[in-house]
Design a protein that fits this description.
Length: 245
């Protein structure tokens, strides 16, 4: 491993750069009035997902949900899935809280905190059925590429939080970031690319078309989806194989 690669692995993972944004009056009101019922505090305690979502049998996290339209749509479609959104942009959090209230989404909760800390501290290993990462900051200038979220330590963290067979679904409209995502994840053990090695997946019908995607298409950017399944650890896979004989 080169010195640069080692430095990238040792650098603390951050899922965001905090940017200031102005609340609209509606977003501010939603944030102030709805947080208590729908917000989750990053206080270091582990979530009991079954208790948090008693009517759900699947659990999904979306990292960086922006203004929340996609996450609200997914939660509307899948009432038996408990969704947790993580976002640091407070106006976006306010917007999603308003959408959740308007649609009566009892299967949706929100963190306004760094996603890496939430994954590490609030969520148990092997507790999630899927992790979604749609259109993360591309840090498109070459000198800033090292700030991209999809690096080996982050991917390994996601892998720990997924159940065996769980899905890591990524999408981006930046080709070079898509290629980096593909290279990083395929370089690590324990993943299966559902499209086949070295290939991108077509957008599944389960992923709503996002506003970022529509914008990227207008700008002539192709959108690429990556779907990776967390493989069962070897001891579990061997046990399952033996039991089936």
């Amino acid at each position: 491993m080169s010195t640069d690669e080692q430095a990238a692995r040792d650098r603390p993972i951050r899922s965001f750069v905090r940017r200031q944004g102005r609340f609209t009056p509606a977003q501010r009101e939603a944030f102030d009035t709805l947080w208590t019922g729908r917000g989750l505090e990053a206080d270091g305690s582990r979530l009991d997902l079954a208790s948090l979502f008693p009517r759900c049998d699947r659990f999904v996290v979306e990292i960086g949900f922006g203004m929340g339209y996609t996450l609200a749509e997914l939660a509307s479609r899948e009432p038996r899935t408990g969704f947790i959104g993580i976002e640091v942009h407070r106006p976006g959090v306010g917007k999603l809280l308003a959408l959740a209230e308007e649609r009566g989404l009892e299967n949706l909760r929100v963190f306004c905190h760094d996603a890496v800390e939430v994954l590490e501290r609030a969520l148990a290993d092997a507790s999630l059925d899927a992790v979604l990462l749609f259109f993360p900051d591309p840090w498109h200038k070459k000198r800033h590429n090292k700030r991209r979220l999809v690096q080996p330590p982050f991917v390994e963290l996601v892998q720990r939080k997924l159940k065996p067979g769980g899905l890591f679904h990524l999408a981006t409209d930046w080709e070079d970031y898509a290629l980096q995502m593909l290279e990083v994840i395929e370089s690590l053990p324990g993943w299966t690319n559902l499209a086949g090695a070295g290939r991108f997946s077509p957008r599944p019908e389960s992923r709503p078309e996002t506003r970022f995607e529509q914008r990227g298409m207008r700008l002539g950017h192709g959108v690429r989806d990556l779907l990776f399944r967390r493989d069962a650890p070897p001891d579990q896979a061997n046990s399952a194989s033996t039991a089936s004989r």
